[in-house]
Write a structure and sequence with these properties.
The complex is a heterodimer. Chain A has helices at residues 17-23, 25-28, 39-59, 72-86, 102-113, 131-137, 160-170, 241-256, 258-279, 306-315, 335-339, 344-347, 361-380, 383-391; strands at residues 5-6, 66-69, 93-97, 117-121, 142-146, 173-177, 196-200, 211-215, 283-285, 296-301, 318-319, 350-354. Chain A is an alpha/beta fold. Chain A folds into two domains: 17-256, Type I PLP-dependent aspartate aminotransferase-like (Major domain) (Aspartate Aminotransferase, domain 2, 3-Layer(aba) Sandwich); 258-391, Aspartate Aminotransferase, domain 1 (Alpha-Beta Complex), CATH 3.90.1150.10. In chain A, strand 3 (93-97), helix 5 and strand 4 (117-121) form a beta-alpha-beta unit. The radius of gyration of chain A is 22 Å and the shape is globular. The model of chain A has no long low-confidence stretch (mean pLDDT 96). Chain B is of the alpha+beta class. Chain B has helices at residues 4-11, 60-73, 78-82, 86-92, 101-122, and strands at 24-30, 35-43, 49-57. Chain B has a three-stranded antiparallel β-sheet with strand order 1-2-3. In chain B, a hairpin with a 5-residue loop joins strand 2 (35-43) and strand 3 (49-57). In chain B, helix 1 (4-11) packs across helix 2, helix 2 crosses helix 5 (101-122) and helix 4 (86-92) packs across helix 5. The longest helix of chain B has 22 residues, at 101-122. Chain B is globular and about 45 Å long. Classes of the chains: A alpha/beta, B alpha+beta. Chains A and B meet through helix 5, helix 10 and helix 14 of A and strand 2, strand 3 and helix 2 of B.
Chain lengths: 392, 147
């Protein structure tokens, strides 16, 4: 059995053993419904409160500003749909970017069908939103700006502070999808003028099926689910207590180790990037060279297709992901790679590798060796490479 | 996701390469959709396919279908090769996932394109062979409307 080298931490992460350990008693012993009166329920109620406090503190927010959801996509959907509805009397214009996650993009498309107008901002070749274009896009009827904190594919970090300032000046709501960034880079909602922020548990070694939406106090946002009084009546339903406890533990863990962990990831990420770019010809790095998530590397290997590459890496125990059409179930490659200006055939040959704290330099040495061999093999079979070599 | 046969043909593709001065060469698909297949045929005086090679830019299924298609047409007459359909390629591979069926169409199309090239070069007409489509994704189903 080959050693598994898991380099798809942007897709999901391994639930940390301490997280699992923290969750177990809330299945077995403290299983009470937090809304119940008896003392058994007090334990689960207390645990939910504590997790909420941990998360609020990590963001510099108040506890009553954190609303648990079933994940990042739910938080994104809630933020956009409810904000659009609540503020539609003021205007019907929304601004977002071309490189958002589908949880944002498809929600925006749905809102367009409901009569809202959406501007999708371009990004530069590194995947960074152009502030000047944003400024020009703002209209008197703009009610919401939604820009992701960090991109899930290419890892590029956005100028969130500047966007927040601009939104605040113009009296426009500002939402950020921080699913990839939360727990990986420091985020302070007050300083950055963020009104709403989405995050998810399983991207930082927490459990799947739990996320939250931060909603700044005073924001008039309709309830997502009507029913009981949970989550200040805005998101009814019995709390996912073990999930919330696990999320809290994961946040505690991620923030306690952030500096050390991310500086190690950055160093290894740069090592990987340098070696791949130096040792494999006709390869480019996607995303910003430095202003990117500490654990994200995204390459395009010319003349080859991503799914073939993924299968061959998998045979060596290496897990990665690609923006090729074949991995998305559609005919188009990643909208993010197209938005940064890559031609289709180069976008099809992309590979995203996202590290975690367990990855070592030796692991990456193995990955680079395998990549060199596999890319060469696939190129030897590629008619695009054949044509390219003939033309030279 | 893939059958053992598909994985075998992906891992150990048969007949990868080029043929110098081939009797016919066919390239189909496009880079935009992420797959391009090129098939080379070496056909003797009596119309038997002596050799067949391929090069493919594409996913695992695209490589496996090209490999299988070359195996299926090798040694056959031009007329027999025409009868190698995408269905035959799929069956020989023990099936493909539904989203990959277009790869087998591409393989069939690539053979036809190579045969068309052979016919053109020799100024002959092959019974039952039509000019290949340039894009095999034409006429595929649209996604379901969301509401």
């Amino acid at each position: 059995m080959k050693k598994l080298i898991y380099l798809d931490n942007a897709a999901t992460t391994k639930t940390a053993p301490q997280v699992v350990e923290a969750m177990i008693p809330y299945f077995t012993e403290h299983f009470g419904n937090p809304s119940s009166v008896y003392s058994l329920a007090a334990e689960s109620r207390k645990a939910v409160t504590e997790a909420r406090e941990t998360i609020a503190k990590a963001l510099g927010a108040a506890t009553e500003e954190i609303y648990f959801t079933a994940g990042g996509s739910e938080a994104d959907n809630w933020a956009l749909k409810a904000a659009a509805e609540s503020y539609s009397s003021k205007g019907k214009h929304i601004i977002t970017t071309k490189i958002e996650h589908h949880a944002i993009l498809h929600t925006c498309e749905w809102l367009e069908k409901k009569g809202f107008e959406v501007t999708y901002l371009n990004v530069d070749e590194n995947g960074v939103v152009k502030l000047e274009e944003l400024r020009r896009a703002v209209r008197p009827d703009t009610i919401l700006i939604s820009v992701m904190y960090a991109n899930n594919e290419i890892g590029t970090l956005q100028p969130i502070r500047e966007i927040g300032e601009l939104a605040r000046e113009r009296g426009i709501l500002f939402h950020t999808d921080a699913v990839q960034a939360f727990g990986h880079v420091p985020i302070q909602v007050e300083e950055l003028h963020i009104d709403m922020l989405s995050a998810s548990g399983h991207k930082l070694n927490g459990p799947k099926g739990i996320g939250f939406l931060y909603i700044r106090k005073g924001l008039k946002l309709r309830s997502l689910i009507h029913g009981g009084a949970q989550e200040r009546k805005r998101r009814a339903g019995t709390e996912n207590v073990p999930g919330i406890v696990g999320f809290g533990k994961a946040v505690e863990r991620a923030f306690a180790s952030m500096e050390e962990r991310t500086s190690q990831e950055r160093e290894l990420r740069d090592y990987l990037i340098d070696r791949v770019l130096k040792e494999i010809p006709y390869t480019r790095l996607n995303g910003h060279r430095t202003s990117r998530l500490p654990n994200n590397a995204n390459f395009s290997f010319q003349f080859i297709e991503g799914e073939s590459l993924l299968i061959m890496l998998d045979m060596e125990g290496i897990c990665g992901s690609s923006g090729s059409a074949c991995t998305s179930g559609s005919l188009d490659p990643s909208h993010v790679l197209l938005a940064v200006g890559l031609p289709h055939e180069i976008a099809h040959g992309s590979l995203r590798l996202t590290l975690n704290e367990e990855i070592t330099r030796e692991d990456l040495d193995f990955v680079v060796e395998q990549l060199k061999r596999i890319v060469e093999h696939l190129r030897s079979m590629s008619p695009l490479y054949e044509d390219f070599m003939r033309r030279r | 996701m893939y059958s053992e046969k598909v994985m075998d043909h992906f891992q150990n593709p048969r007949n990868v390469g080029e043929i110098e001065n081939a009797s016919g060469v066919g390239t189909v698909g496009n880079a935009k959709c992420g797959d391009i297949m090129r098939i080379y045929l070496d056909i003797d005086e009596v119309g038997v396919i002596r050799d067949c090679k391929f090069k493919t830019f594409g996913c695992g299924a695209a490589v496996a279908t090209s490999s299988m298609a070359t195996e299926l047409v090798k040694g056959k007459t031009v007329q027999e090769a025409l009868k190698v359909t995408n269905k035959a390629v799929m069956e020989a591979l023990d099936g493909l996932p539904p989203v990959k069926v277009h790869c087998s169409l591409l393989a069939e199309e690539a053979i036809h394109a190579a045969l068309w090239d052979y016919a053109e070069k020799n100024g002959i007409r092959i019974e039952g062979l039509e000019k290949p489509k340039s894009d095999i994704h034409e006429g595929e189903e649209e996604e379901e409307e969301e509401y």
